[in-house]
Amino acid sequence: MRKKNFKITKKRQHILEVLKGTDEHLSAEDIYFILKRKNIKVGLATIYRTLDLFYQHGIVNKINVGDGTVRYEYVDRKRVHHHHLICIKCGKIMEYTDKKEEEFLKELTKRIKDRYGFTVLSHEIYLYGICNECREKEKS
Ligand SMILES: [Zn+2]
Ligand SMILES: [Zn+2]
Ligand SMILES: [Zn+2]
Predict the structure, then answer these.
(1) Domain 80-140, architecture per CATH
(2) What separation in Å is there between the alpha carbon of 129 and the centre of ligand 2?
(3) How confident is the model over 43-64, as pLDDT tens digits?
(4) Which numbered ligand comes closest to the C-alpha of 134?
């Protein structure tokens, strides 16, 4: 559900710039420290509120990998829909796309609708494992 437009204040602009300027998945704390390093003072509570607002307006995606920290990414129209790979050793979040998986998900959405009368509107997929670098480290 999209809400009405909102004012983009200077503080909100700063937060948006941080998210726009990276491909990484940032938590509210990450954004707080990035801004602090640039000598821009925005309180953590404001960042939380702003991220929530952005989320409600479809400006950011929430990534919740279940480690107690919610991370955000800017929704770029040029950036394709993707899923996430999460390394359980170093916490790195990688992105991947897979056409066949999306086709399967479309079919699944149809079957869910037929079987349960439930309309799937969106999905998130997180695959947990060990990244290449951590596996290399383990070897040595
Ligand atoms: Zn790793
Ligand atoms: Zn992502
Ligand atoms: Zn997908």
Answers:
(1) 2-Layer Sandwich (3.30)
(2) 16
(3) 999 999 999 999 988 889 999 8
(4) 1
